[in-house]
Amino acid sequence: MTTSSSLSSHLRAVLFDSGGVLMRPIGGRWNPRADFEENVLACDPSITPDRFADAIAAGDRFMSHSAGTPDYDDYHRVLLGRLGLLPTPELLAQLRHDVHPSVVLELFPDVFNTLTELKRRGVRMAVVSDAWPNLPDLHEGLGIRDYFEVYAISAELGCEKPDPRMYHHASTELGLQPSECLFVDDLPDLVSAAMALGYEGRALYRTAPTEQVPSITSLTELLELF
Predict the structure, then answer these.
(1) β partners of residue 125
(2) What pLDDT is attached to residue 1?
(3) pLDDT-based confidence at 67, cuts 50/70/90?
(4) Distance of alpha carbon 155 from alpha carbon 20, whole angstroms
(5) Which of 120, 225, 154, 132 lies closest to 183 in space, CA to CA?
(6) In the 3-class helix/strand/coil scheme, how is the chain assigned residue by residue?
(7) Mind listing the pLDDT tens digit for each residue in 76-98?
(8) Residue 189 has pLDDT above 70, yes or no
(9) How far is CA 222 from the centre of its chain?
(10) Is the pLDDT of residue 157 over 70?
């Protein structure tokens, strides 16, 4: 395994996944947004929890079979269709209306101080995430947008990790070689894919380390590498 001292001699940047690494949904569910039921019940108060669960499962299947990250309205149309509701422009707009990110999302406790210290040390940072285009706005609302020079977002690039274009977009826009970048994700397979492309990698397991790839249990451990 590569030692920390040898890593620090050539690493210049960290490429972060977002969900599961930097932030998490309040209540534990990424999609649909936490206020989905509230907005739908305003249209039809008779919808039961079982029907919501069925619709959300249909949405999960739609997401898993989509090539890339689908349009958010298309995703909501699947859920509403399963619930027997007409996806009117007004309802679709209500389901994606702006709320402050802190209403539905929160940073992990180790994020802010780690990003601050990495920036102080001159480490450059980017985000590589399977996400919708509003991810930078979510980060802005959570107070971390200014740490990142580059965003590689699946909905904008038309591909998802482990497609090499996701990783390469970030490092290329930073003007760095893959070997100068450390990729961090909570899914070890995606870290393995990055390492196969020449990036350094760490899988983030906040509960217990994995032996599949080099891993860390807290973002603060990144500071040992720079």
Answers:
(1) 14
(2) 46
(3) confident
(4) 18
(5) 225
(6) CCCHHHHHCCCCEEEECCECCCEEECCCCCCCCCCHHHHHHCCCCCCCHHHHHHHHHHHHHHHHCCCCCCCHHHHHHHHHHHHCCCCCHHHHHHHCCCCCHHHHEEECCCHHHHHHHHHHCCCEEEEEECCCCCHHHHHHHHCCHHHCCEEEEHHHHCCCCCCHHHHHHHHHHHCCCHHHEEEEECCHHHHHHHHHCCCEEEEECCCCCCCCCCEECCHHHHHHHC
(7) 999 999 999 999 999 999 998 88
(8) yes
(9) 18
(10) yes
Give the residue among 22, 206, 186, 188 at the shortest CA–CA distance from 105: 22
- Beta strands at 181-185 and 13-16: parallel, antiparallel or unpaired: parallel
CATH of domain 4-26+103-225: 3.40.50.1000
pLDDT at 8: 59
What pTM, to 2 d.p., does this model score? 0.79
Distances in Å between the Cα of 212 and the Cα atoms of 163, 190, 195, 199 are 20, 11, 12, 16
CA–CA gap between residue 197 and residue 220 (Å, rounded):
25
Distance CA 31, CA 61 (A): 12
pLDDT the model gives residue 46: 96
C-beta separation of 126 from 151 below 8 A: yes
Instruction: Return the pLDDT at 171.
Output: 98
Write out the two tokens for 44. 């039809």
